[in-house]
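Reopening this ticket.

The earlier resolution said the output was attached, but the attachment link was broken on my side. Pasting everything inline this time so it's all in one place.
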Amino acid sequence: MSFIDHLEALRWHIIRAAIAIVVFTLGAFLSKEFLFHELILGPSRPDFWTYRMFCQLGQTLNSAELCLKELTFDLQNRQMSGQLSMHISTSFVVGLALGFPYLFWELWRFISPGLYPHERANSRGAVFFVSVLFALGLLFGYYIAAPLSIQFLASYQLDPTIENQIDLQSYISTLTTMSLSCAFVFELPMVVFFLAKAGLITPEIMRLYRKHAIVVILVIAAVITPPDVSSQLIVTLPILLLYELSINIARVVRRKDVARLNAQLAENHGQV
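Inline output:
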């Protein structure tokens, strides 16, 4: 195929992915009550699943501090078209999150024909694992990272006379940013997999720079979460586990590449 033909093929992959995202966006837009009352505004109420689980944990540990009785803030809209704008933008974000697996699948369909047969064989299941990790990160961000941040920021006061009247845009931005950030951070094992396949990273390098990676992970957790030590630790731990998992993935990739090269050398030696 010529360069123009490749661009034409890429254009149709992008168009199909965009159509899927638009369909999910329209579905989210038409499900306004569920989208906002249950999904978006859920972490703003004390009966949210995460708060109830922490309360049950507190009862088990005889710690009443883990039970959340109320969230001391009010959501407000201060712009004439603010609620309509947030309805449209939030529906698009949800559509993008739901359509991400299909978007990656379309991009993978464009990339995979250019791979060697052994590279396609070794990369089998890439779409599945990328989608699973994205979903796990999204759920972790929505049910763990975002509620902890909202709880901390809602309860933080400089003085009891100051009321927290939070703008709707600020609240939704915090929720969506933290959820999507965790979703993309959870893709670390797949990023390491492709870098290891390209020979750009090795398990020895990852072990050598483990301390540096821990510092970077702490910085990422501090950016994702509010300045609360407990929230940062909760976000840091799964990322550290993903980093250790990525080291093992890099080791497996190198072992398979070495085995394949040895097999090719043995075959070439046999032919000679």
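Reporter confirms the inline version is readable. The chain has two domains: 1-67+83-155, 187-272. The first helix runs from residue 3 to 30.
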